[in-house]
Amino acid sequence: MDYNFETIKFELRDDGIGILSLNRPKSLNAMSFQMIEDLNSIFDHLMINLDCRVLILRGEGRAFSAGLDIKEAPISQKKRIPEEYSKKFFFLNAPEPIKRKMYAQWRTGQIIVKMRKINQPIIGLIQGAASGAGFAFINATDIRIASKSAKFNNAFIKLGFSGSDLGVSYFLPRHIGMSRAVEILYTGRFFAAEEAEQNGFILKIVEEEQLLEAGIELANNMLSKSPLGLRMTKEAINLSLDAPSLETIIQIENRTQMLCAVSRDVNEGIQSFFEKRNPKYPLR
Q: Are 25 and 193 within 8 A, CB to CB?
């Protein structure tokens, strides 16, 4: 696949670590219509890319993402979508304004769904603001590491919209508990890296220049595990978020373990354990 995009950068390293960077630093990585399409495209690709085993999500410049690009998006009733946008982006090619907005909302929401559906665990690296849609992206990652400059807020509620958008009302209560989550969703206030670490939203705080290094270190730890085992662990975790009972998730885990048990990964894992060496798993 050609990894040339207008608003994002993607690098797939030889070791299986993919680095996905939001790349509109002059606009604080605000989400444009083109970024919506670029992100959908890369996540569609990652669905079937077995060479990428762990994904790092980051933002270029001094912020992770300031959220929706308000200068471009037609969130106001008075603002019209430029004609060239309707020709370029299929989800804006509808005769009625409400339909255009609904289709654009749907297309954006699919990014969040795809982030959970891909097999790769996602490590989010945050510096500066992760606001609105940027906050939503970070909520959909598996593990979050931030610099001291990081700050988060649910900006939708401050613009007259619902505070429940792009999955934040699903993820945030699961990350930090209901009471803390709803206060943030209702008020839209910023909370800093220190509070995010205390309430468990982020794993840890590192110096900004060490963010990528910390992400790669964590990714390398994951790469030492079975490729199949890692992928099925994420799948089971996703299913467990909505499991109606303990028995249901136990049955899911039973099937997961039996599928792993018949793979060569398990043979290598057990043999390396008894030989007291690091396992040499296949790349896929």
A: no
246 exposure class (CB count in 10 Å sphere: 0-12, 13-18, 19+): exposed
Query: What is the residue extent of each domain of the chain?
Result: 8-223, 227-274
Instruction: Extract the tokens encoding 104.
Output: 């654009």
Q: Over the stretch 71-117, which tens digit does the pLDDT of each residue have?
A: 776 544 455 666 677 678 887 777 787 887 888 889 999 999 999 99
User: Strand ranges (DSSP E) for the chain?
Assistant: 8-12, 17-22, 54-59, 122-126, 129-131, 143-146, 151-153, 191-192, 204-205
Which CATH code for domain 8-223? 3.90.226.10
Distance between CA atoms of residues 173 and 182, nearest Å: 7
The single-letter DSSP state of residue 192 is E
Given a cut of 60, whether residue 280 has pLDDT beyond it is yes
pLDDT exceeds cutoff 60 at 255: yes
Lookup: tokens for 220: 């390398």
